[in-house]
Specification:
heterodimer; A: alpha/beta; 9 helices; 21% helix; B: alpha+beta; D-amino Acid Aminotransferase, Chain A, domain 1; 3 domains; five-stranded antiparallel sheet; 17 strands; 33% helix; 28% strand
Chain lengths: 361, 343
């Protein structure tokens, strides 16, 4: 290693400092790597120094460790040695999309009377590309098909369907169904007799899960499985809420909300357009609550690759408090079962959550 | 009005620019190449008249209203030949006749497209179709004249010249004079990527061969893919030399472990020279390929006037689709202010 050179992280490998440890978020290869906070300091505060002057900065007392760090970073392609670091600017982390609304969640049960034609026409005008349809009661594939016909000739690109199990739901029937509706990205069948995962040859993914999804209270789980290390989430997380930003929801009664889990609504689709609901001064308020403003999250090394939840929080009176259903403690670097945390019991009671026996770790 | 000339298949970039135009309430119309075949069209030319009307599914655009044309590929899709597809289908057992008919229809379409562009010749174009397939050798020559380094290049048909070239420049590569092409053979497919030519390869060759292009193999520190729009540069460095698979040609993608692609800043004097080059080639936009050699030189390889945007836009978060939309909107406003009466 030529220690007169400077070490430069690839711009897509972005260091994020946590309280106890830090991460390098590799937004190109969709991975993250833990690093000690001292290495974070070297990579940020001392980034303009050559390796030999970094060693000198620590009085040459830790040369071996510093060599180890840089060998590790070079071998794993997190960065490179160069003389001209100024030729390699950082990625501009501004998040931009050509849409007023980027994603929508529509809840449906047996009593729902949604005017789907009007819903999807309005979403088209708002530039919406992603839809989740969440069914709480049993519906046949034909019924779902009828709903999806209203999406034809729109620019909607991705549809996720969450629906309770029926015996007619087989890989074969789902494949035929998804081919009819090419924008389907995945189908999640809940309350299934067994857990199963499959896909067809057209990139449609089918999940069968045993857990029932029978109420909005199932939402809001924070878990390492939901982390997504990609440039679009990472940039959005810099300035916006990673769950609610540019989201609109319709609950099973047709009420327009930020998320169906919230008690308050901004009118009903029978008498209020999405555009009018968006005009309400409070509707967009939650969009810009990013992790840097949320207690605890702001000290977490996962904060730009994580989802969020504002509907269930540790302190229901403080919209800036930590997601209730997160069991990670950035001060110890450890995960625990959130539902067993004595400090969370009040909030769990407040939201009347029925907590699964083993809450997500 | 902004007029977008494009085609139906695989045009994500076009669609994304259109999303921005929609979002910004811009006045635009898209015509796909195939529309000239399958929609109602009328081209009138007489002593007193020169008109070209295309009736789209939902509108009849008034071409006089067009201020800027964005040319973004213009082919018919291969799904059919419009009203003629039935004939081609009927003749599928007569391969020669059906090939002749297809060729004839394609030729007719080519001239018709040409007259369509001609009708729009007084407009401002973001890439005129006449300049979207530049001769790569001329491009090298223009670059050289603009003061930009180029790889030593030879096109030859005889072994002795090739041998002399190799003796002079050391390691050499070969690549197509024009574009890379995929060759399908018995269910396998292979591409003409840039490949090193060794002494053994030369020894195996006969004295005479089909004229082929050879260049010095320049050891690179990294490659640059530079998106260019209206005198502004959006460069991306590709660390293809870190991976044996992509060392000679980054297009031999490693899907498991993609090359590192990061934003880059070009030196200002190189930018000035590249602007001269792009103006000479009449390309208001394009993707420029450059090597940064181990000895510190920037070496120009080629320009693709209608390159993929996503490849640079996403990893560097350059938002190129919005930049193009903004350029089109700005040109639309400027041109409509200075509009001359159309004839």
């Amino acid at each position: 290693m030529n220690t007169e050179k400077k070490f430069k992280l690839f711009a897509c490998c972005i260091p994020v400092k946590g309280s106890r440890r830090s991460t390098i978020c590799d937004v190109q290869r969709s991975e993250y790597q833990f690093i000690p906070n001292i290495l974070y300091e070297i990579l940020t505060e001392l980034k303009d120094k050559s390796i030999s002057s970094i060693k000198a900065h620590y009085n040459n007392e830790h040369d071996n460790i510093i060599d180890e760090y840089f060998s590790f970073l070079l071998n794993n392609e997190y960065g490179f040695l160069c003389d001209n670091p100024d030729s390699f600017p950082d990625i501009d982390l501004t998040w931009k999309v050509p849409a007023t609304i980027t994603n929508v969640l529509i809840d449906v049960d047996a009593s729902s009377q949604h005017d789907y034609h009007s819903i999807f026409q309005q979403l088209e005008e708002l530039g919406c590309k992603a839809i989740q349809l969440r069914f709480y009661t049993q519906h046949s594939l034909n019924e779902v098909s009828d709903i999806l016909t209203h999406i034809q000739n729109t620019r909607i690109k991705s549809i996720e369907i969450v629906i309770p199990y029926k015996p007619e739901f087989t890989i074969e029937s789902l494949t035929i169904f998804s081919r009819k509706h090419p924008h389907i990205s995945n189908v999640i069948i809940h309350s299934s007799p067994k857990e199963e995962f499959d896909h067809d040859n057209y990139n449609h993914i089918f999940y069968f899960i045993e857990t029932p999804v029978d109420a909005t209270t199932h939402c809001g789980q924070i878990s390492g499985n939901h982390f997504r290390t990609d440039i679009s989430l990472f940039t959005e997380a810099q300035s916006y809420n990673t769950c609610l930003n540019r989201k609109i929801s319709v609950d099973q009664k047709g009420n327009i909300k930020n998320c169906p889990s919230f008690p308050n609504n901004y009118g009903n689709i029978t008498d209020t357009s999405f555009k009018d609901a968006l005009k309400h001064p409070d509707f967009k308020k939650l969009w810009s609550i990013n992790k840097d403003q949320i207690h605890v999250c702001k000290d977490c090394e996962f904060r730009y690759i994580c989802t969020d939840c504002r509907a269930y929080v540790d302190d229901p009176k403080d919209i800036y408090s930590k997601p209730l259903k997160c069991g990670y403690n950035p001060y110890s670097g450890e995960w625990e079962a959130w539902a067993e945390n004595p400090l969370k019991q009040k909030a769990i009671e407040y939201y009347q959550l029925s907590v699964p026996i083993t809450s997500n770790k | 009005m902004i007029l977008i000339l494009s085609h139906v298949a695989n045009e994500d970039s076009t669609n994304q620019v259109i999303d921005w135009l929609e979002h910004k309430n811009a006045d635009y119309t898209r015509i796909n190449g195939n529309d000239l075949r399958v929609q109602k069209i009328e081209f009138n030319l007489s002593d007193s008249e020169h008109s070209f009307d295309v009736e789209l599914e939902d509108s009849i655009p008034d071409l006089d209203d067009v201020n800027i044309v964005w040319f973004r590929r213009w082919t018919w899709n291969n799904k059919g030949y419009g009203p003629q597809s039935a004939i081609v289908e009927e003749l599928k057992d007569e391969p020669q006749l059906s090939t002749n008919i297809k060729k004839h229809l394609n030729n007719e379409f080519g001239i018709l497209s040409g007259s369509f562009y001609h009708k729009l010749s007084s407009k401002k174009w973001l890439s005129h179709p006449a300049y979207i397939n530049p001769n790569k050798l001329n491009a090298l020559n223009y670059a050289r004249r603009a003061g930009i380094h180029i790889p030593p290049t030879i096109i030859t048909s005889h072994k002795e010249a090739l041998q002399n070239f190799k003796d002079k420049w050391g390691r050499i590569i070969t690549k197509p004079i024009k574009d890379t092409m995929a060759f399908q053979y018995k269910k396998t497919s292979s591409n003409l990527f840039t490949t090193e030519v060794t002494q053994e390869d030369i020894d195996k060759h006969p004295d005479r061969f089909y004229p082929s292009l050879f260049q010095q193999l320049i050891e690179k520190e990294y490659e640059l893919r530079v998106f260019y729009l209206d005198k502004k540069f959006y460069p991306m460095a590709i660390f293809s030399q870190l991976d044996k698979q992509t060392e000679v040609d980054f297009r031999v993608y490693n899907e498991q472990k993609p090359n590192r692609n990061v934003p880059y800043k070009l030196p200002e004097d190189l930018e000035k020279k590249l602007i001269l080059l792009m103006e000479k080639m009449r390309c208001p936009t394009g993707s420029i390929d450059i090597l940064k050699s181990k000895d510190g030189r920037y070496i120009f390889l080629e320009v693709n006037p209608v390159g993929q945007l996503g490849m640079t836009s996403i990893p560097c978060n350059y938002q190129l689709e919005e930049k193009i939309a903004d350029y089109l909107i700005q040109q639309n406003n400027e041109q409509s202010k200075t509009k001359k009466p159309n004839n």
